[in-house]
Amino acid sequence: MFGKILPSLAGAAALLFPARALAGGDVAPLVIVADTRHLTGLMAWWGNLYNEGHLTFTIVTIILIPLIGILFGIVADLAMRLIGIDLSSRDLAEH
Questions:
Q1: What is the DSSP secondary structure assignment for residue 95, as one 8-state letter?
Q2: For position 54, what pLDDT does the model report?
Q3: Which structural domain range is residue 15 located in?
């Protein structure tokens, strides 16, 4: 009975307590930062936003990705309309 439960408990402990199970004692927290020393303008702002707060960076990214997708879609639609492709009046070929 204990032959099957003990390995399961050990596996659960390794998953629930990774700092103790894998690091082997007191360790310094891992700090992940972007190197912004040689960046300027928008790239420097973006890197500093990442360094100052991951939550703010995540929220701004989540907001910007759909907005940029909409912008690219509108620009692509205008470009196709300029070259004579009108997707709004397309006839379906499947009958």
A1: -
A2: 86
A3: 1-30
